Amino acid sequence: MKKSFSTISSLVLGTALTTSVASGATGELAKIMKDRGLSEVDVIRAAKTYNPTGVKDKYVVFSSGGQSGQMIVYGVPSMRILKYIAVFTPEPWQGYGYDKDSIDVLRQGNIRGREINWGDTHHPALSETDGKYDGKWLAINDKANPRIAIIDLADFETKQIVVNPVFKSDHGGAFFTPNSEHILEAAQYAAPFDNNYHPIEEYKETYRGGVTVWKFDPKIGRVVPNDSYTIEMPPYMQDLSDSGKGLSNGWGFTNSFNSEMYTGGIEVGMPPNEAGMSRNDTDYLHVYNWEKLYKLSKDPKNVKIINDHKVIPMDVAVKNNALFLIPEPKSPHGVDVDPTGQYIVVCGKLDTHASVYDFKKIKKLIDNKEFVGKDPFGIPILDMKKSLHGQVELGLGPLHNQYSPVDGEIYTSLYVDSQVVKWNFKTLKVLDKENVHYNIGHLAGMEGKSADPQGEYIIALNKLAIDRFQNVGPLHPQNHQLIDISGKTMDLLVDMPLPLGEPHQAVAIRASKLHPHVRYEMGTNTKTGKQHIGKTLAGQERIERDGNHVKVYGTLVRSHINPERITVNKGDRVTMYLTNLERAEDETHGFTVDHYNLHGSLEPGETIELDFTADIEGVFPYYCTEFCSALHLEMMGYLMVKDPNKKYESAQKIKMKSMTPEELKAEYDKTVAVNNATDAVIQSVVKFLKDNKYQDHKVVANLVTDAFDQYNQIPAQKKKADEAVKAGEMEKAILFENMIWQLMVKTADVGIRAKDALVRIIATTQSTAAARGEKTFAEGGCNGCHVIGKVSSGPDLTGVLQRHENGVDWVSRFILDPQSMYTDPYVKGMIDYFNLKMPNQHMNKEEVKDIIEYLKWVDENANLF
Ligand code: RUQ
Ligand code: CUA
User: Fold this and answer.
1) This prediction's pTM
2) Domain Cytochrome c, which positions (predicted)?
3) Which residue in 35, 191, 412, 503 could disulfide with 63, CB within 3.0 to 4.6 Å?
4) Which CATH superfamily is 524-642 part of?
5) Topology at the third CATH level for domain 768-864
6) Tens digits of per-residue pLDDT, 104-152?
7) Are 210 and 311 in contact (CB under 8 A)?
């Protein structure tokens, strides 16, 4: 086993690509390669993406979830999915759309009074400081129902949805400006800004495109709608956009198609849209000064108010030298500003070229008022040739671009050719091409559109997955392919199917830049970040009635819901405020009431609200929906809804046999004895922790706090048990003692984890051989019978090297050939005692040596186990 491990590391470490490695692969690795038909290159690629258990990824990717209206979070290089974030669509796991506060967020996205329960998400964007990702906020657009949403990266939850008041669809968003002052969102299909009917014959006069410049407050992470404005633009279909940065800070760039202003009409004998909208050789790149226009938008005489929203008319923007057009090759798609802000790369889509515009040249033409003409709306047009740095022929269907830290290096997706091309936008040279599978749309570099691209990997977001995966029916997943770009040529490493809609764009950030919470302040309304009005602490649980409005203030903590019985009248409005009292990490409780279409996910410290009308009569269990502890199934209660106009006959009381007082007393004594014994174990762990100054180590101290959260609840339960004994209510006393035992088990569970963590910290450092030995000990199965520090199904091995004369030799021989020693009197005694024989684990000498080193380390630290 060890041999194969070192073979893999030599594969990864060097020489691998040039020399024949298969010949170097021996033993188990060679066998696996043969059985699975893997080449040496496959094994290298696997090693580049494999994360052993517990090892985390270097990058985190936020991918749009396409028509799912959600976002997908996954890690690179492992390509393991970490989370789906509910954004525009109800999502039950997170309770999104099933508890009151998240419904409030979702309903911010209502359009003209209509509830919209899905979204077509395209372009996620990470917030920036100085053009670099700061790991704080995430924005994403909905193309179908023009909206953008804001997600807080402190908890990966959607906090805000804003509806675009004038667009009827959008596509070129969301794009943060370099200090997250604004978010750009460009329209797609031109339509009237007002909400009235306008005949298509009046397209040029009444249909409009535009870019909305949303004001964003990066401190609180919210869009400020009434400080936002839209730049009116011609009814060319605006498409992808990008914000300038560095040299071009303050400016925005938006592509378009259909500068023909064609409106189709197959049904009246006109050629279809696709023919008419791509007739011209060029369309227009819109160049606008959002910074200047923002200032102008503050003065009412510069804006028209449409649907309560500020719109800067085209003529105002033109008069103030803030809106220009530059021809670009027909029907382009992506426009991507380079890390310095000087170059703007536009991809052809229907043209085989990428066009590199130079902002310095553009700025000079603008400053000199050097125009070649005006479009029908009076917008000045700059000369295309004079604005260009150059053009490069890349291949068929260039769409999107990503940058790397290498000066001038850029990666472009070729939709039709199904390739990624690496080229240099300064020297205008093509450097390498890699085939992907098939029809790549966007591609995602590591921080590849920020001012600080990291290189290393590119992800191809392919539209088709045909023949890559098991057929799951006519609707296929999408395929994200990870490409290693660290070498001279690109190398495709691995495929990942994504079955949740068509993810258009994804953005990647270094994991080290993300610092999400592990728990909330007690009683937090996570949607507002403020204290929830329904915050309820232990002991404050209650049910209040105000007319026919019943308010329940409840709590959840392992493993009970308080209250456990709620009785209301049919027709009552019920508001349940529920607080998860846990402080322990990853102790989520879920909550539902059967039949009522409600669900909440309560993360530690969170308070949620469920608001409903108890409109059906009956008995409805409610329960915790997360398997949170051994007594999770018991974490339940009943909502009982009775009809106040009905008479209920009480059921016949059946006489149940009950225990005698003597039997009850015996059970009580037994329970108390078990509790005392358990407490003794806890106290010994506490003594160990104190003796070894656990408070000096933050990780351990946190666990101890969690443990005491449980332990400190015991006195209150003990008091109740004792009172019950006094009152002669033995049955109740036993139940309270049982509760004490539950609390002790929970305390011990965390306490022992704290002890283990502390041992690791204070033990002497392991030599590499000892560390290897520990791994072998575990992987070789030794720990199945031998638990260090404890007698389990085999003897405790602490001190084993001292127990025998020439201990090292004795133990080594015993591991290598146990059968030969079964007659040794000591071994024989052990076999009889444990009723088990030490098996031959077929270790080699090296492995045994390592295990001996490990056992020496155990002895050095014997006092800790
Ligand atoms: S799109 S495949 Cu960004 Cu909506 Cu280009
Ligand atoms: Cu809480 Cu299950």
Assistant:
1) 0.83
2) 768-859
3) 503
4) Cupredoxins -  blue copper proteins (2.60.40.420)
5) Cytochrome Bc1 Complex; Chain D, domain 2 (1.10.760)
6) 999 999 999 999 999 999 999 999 999 999 999 999 999 999 999 999 9
7) yes
